[in-house]
Specification:
It contains eight helices and four strands; from the N terminus they run ααβαααβαβαβα. It is α+β, with helices and mostly antiparallel strands and 221 residues long. The radius of gyration is 18 Å and the shape is globular.
């Protein structure tokens, strides 16, 4: 698979098959992905991979917190509000998902049941957690983003799909305890990994992209 095909075929998978992944495959993906660039070759990332019983323990604890309405507490702040155009795109995405699932925005029980799939990590058989030393700045966070994209693109080479999601790190104390992540590391991000369930209606939808004329400003060409 070439890079363009990987970029186009990558999507946020929201329903995975339960089929487990081999450790060797994940290692091969990460070996290639860690060729990602970083500031002065600092390679600031620390990677923890959960699967099998360990991941099930994390998943079950997340679901319990979800049902108890425990507030989410990711270790990196989330936006308190979005600029209007960004908020509009997010709302359009939510509306499309509800439409695909046949749900209505005024049905709280159905909406909550649907959101529970996030707490279940979309039933993915593996989750990759990306961490940084707490002393680092947003510049190193940018390096982590480069790594995350590299992981998701390399996963396509192996026929795997992925879901980068803040919900995967919503309760970091659970992850830290289960994976033995030291306190000096911030649990920044999670990437669910596995084979997409092609029968799920959520996996049939592809989000649109802004036209380039809205995004790019050329000068001197």
């Amino acid at each position: 698979m070439n890079v363009t095909d990987a970029l186009i075929s990558r999507f946020t998978c929201r329903a995975f098959k339960p089929e487990p992944l081999k450790k060797k495959m994940i290692l091969d993906i990460l070996e290639a992905a860690t060729r990602a660039p970083s500031w002065a070759n600092t390679q600031p990332w620390e990677i923890f991979v959960a699967g099998g019983k360990v991941l099930e323990n994390i998943r079950e604890a997340f679901i319990k917190n979800f049902h108890k309405d425990v507030p989410r507490a990711p270790e990196n702040p989330v936006p308190e509000k979005w600029p209007p155009d960004l908020k509009k795109r997010s709302e359009e995405l939510r509306a499309e998902r509800l439409k695909i699932l046949g749900l209505k925005g005024n049905d709280p029980a159905a909406l909550r049941a649907n959101f529970e799939q996030n707490a279940r990590f979309f039933r993915a058989p593996a989750v990759i957690y990306l961490c940084l030393d707490r002393s680092l700045t947003p510049w190193s966070m940018f390096d982590l983003g480069l790594l995350a994209q590299s992981i998701m693109l390399e996963a396509r080479e192996y026929g795997l799909d992925s879901a980068p999601a803040v919900m995967l790190v919503a309760y970091p104390e659970i992850i830290r305890a289960e994976l033995g992540i030291p306190e000096n590391l911030s649990i920044v991000f999670g990437i669910a990994l596995g084979h997409a369930d092609s029968q799920s209606p959520l996996n049939k939808y592809r989000t649109p992209r802004r036209p380039l004329r809205e995004v790019i400003r050329f000068q001197g060409f």
